[in-house]
């Protein structure tokens, strides 16, 4: 069970549709009720709590995390020193969002930012807002949303994950009742909110939120299919490899971001189609799982190293970290390219 990374590939390939990964998560939860959890697992599972503290002094925290002594200490408690911890942004996405001046619109979308975009890569959130504005939507960022709970459930912290899930469903449900779609730019958050909440927890409003939740690429391609997407794109240039995260493929919605970037003139975007990158959220950060993660992702890394692409596109933050660390190639979220094509 401890080798399960919750990558969902067992679910994807099971011909009978059995949610094997969910059975693993439930079994892990039972196991940890009597066996306890390590400090390593607690730290990796509570990234939001760490970010709330660390992001207030981002520059100092980032220096501390990258410091050789700190890396030695982290390795002693079981966190690999070979995969850099994601640095915190100087200002969170929420802080920057408050200063944005959007064009008001009766058509609104609700953004669930997730921890990675809020604390580590707020530019993706800013790019998303710009793209939505270019399509006539006003973005709403609800207060008091919490971590989706994905890092918690993989290490058996079910009670805490359920508490966060109940809060998120309650707050997002208020917007669903008003008829507004909920969008996320993180495929792991999307899978948790759309599917895993229903598989793991019995929470009133689960199904209604799931039915109104979209991946960013999925929502924009739906607009395109309805003839509503702003397609006044400026030509770009470059050859990109697109990596579909496992938590996107598990949603069964295809590769909407691959189709979306395929609409951008001047770009050559190719589907990597080589499976999992190996990192699987916090799995690849565990010292005893790092080599396993690298072996899982080796086919993808070989394809990138032998391809000559300018950059790799992926909708998942930790996938991008893993790919960049393993290959040295620049990684981007697809929404960033869409913003650039709008000339914003």
Please describe what this structure looks like.
- By secondary structure, this protein is α/β, with parallel strands linked by helices.
- It has a domain at about 240-340: Rossmann fold (3-Layer(aba) Sandwich), CATH 3.40.50.
- It has helices at about 10-15, 20-35, 40-45, 45-55, 60-65, 70-75, 95, 115-120, 120-135, 150-155, 160-175, 185-200, 205-210, 215-225, 245-250, 255-260, 290-295, 300-305, 315-325, 335-340; strands at about 110, 140, 180-185, 215, 240-245, 265-270, 310-315, 330.
- Strands 2-1-3-4 form a four-stranded parallel β-sheet. Strands 6-5-7-8 form a four-stranded parallel β-sheet.
- Helix 9 (about 120-135) packs across helix 20.
- The chain starts with 8 loop residues before the first helix and ends with a helix.
Describe, in short, the structure shown.
This protein has helices at residues 9-13, 20-35, 39-45, 47-54, 58-66, 68-76, 93-97, 114-120, 122-134, 150-153, 158-176, 187-200, 206-211, 216-225, 246-249, 256-261, 290-296, 298-305, 317-327, 334-341; strands at residues 108-111, 138-140, 182-184, 213-215, 238-243, 267-271, 311-314, 331-332. The protein is an alpha/beta fold and 344 residues long. The N and C termini lie far apart (46 Å).
